[in-house]
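Q: I have 312 residues here and want to know how they pack in 3D. Can you give me a structure?
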Amino acid sequence: MKWRIAVAGAAATIAFGGVVAAVDTQSTVTLAGPNDTLSAQTVLASITVAPENPRGYKRSLFKHWIDVDGDGCDAREQVLKRDAIGLPQVDPFKCFVVEADWLSPYDGVKTTDRTEVDIDHVVALKEAWDSGAFAWNEAQRTAYANDTSDSRTLLAVSSSSNRSKGDKDPSNWLPALRAYQCTYVANWIAVKARWGLSMDQSEWGRLNNMLSGSCAGTTLRGWNPPPAGVGTPASTTSSLATVTTSTTSSTSTSTSTSTSGAADSTVKVNPGSFCAPEGAVGVYNSRNYVCSKTNASGVPYSGGRARWRQQT
């Protein structure tokens, strides 16, 4: 899915599947490429909120610690080498990190013992599965499990912090080192957006609260597409496109093409389920739905929470 972000002043509205929610003033935003600085809050607002789908997960479905980029190093050794402090000693024939120093960003633990260093999938394999990877093919899962093309996907951390984290999302776990928490939040959002993964309501809400509070103003860098040649997920976005917002008070239709020339895919929604951000649109059974805090008659939903309802 190619996704677009329309901004008017400080407010943003999200466009899915060719439908753009209208805003008050006309504005054009161009965001593309790995060198761009993006608002973490704006990227978060683009991510689909949906219930998790944990059925069928097995860790063995994600083949990991293999060499997928053909550089002679498996993903674990590559990250151990990349995240070492200073210059590591590496066996040039086996690409094995013989000696190095590591400093875990999660808890500040420093070690020279490689057996005390874990390579963490920042968005854990099970979390990825629950959030959309259940629909990927084997090549996609392998690419994700061994992704060294973006340093936010895999990270060398202390074994103890990795065990503490497990497969928890930020609503249940944050790094003990408070100075790293906002960076962790930004990295989590970037991985989910880059790989087209959804968030559940509590996960999205916790991140939104942090970006509105202790992590206000957090930014993240853009990204390249996930590794090429593996049939990357259809919902993955490689960049943010240029979009001109409508000046009307109703929704307007907009079309765009992805970099490959194919039409944008449409977000599938679950009618009646919680959603965010308010104003997002999607489709169910060929009918358009909107994320709204009120029903079609204008009556607010209980708790003031937004739900997917059919557009009128």
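Q: Anything worth noting?
A: The chain has seven helices and 16 strands. The CA atoms of residues 129 and 135 lie 8 Å apart.
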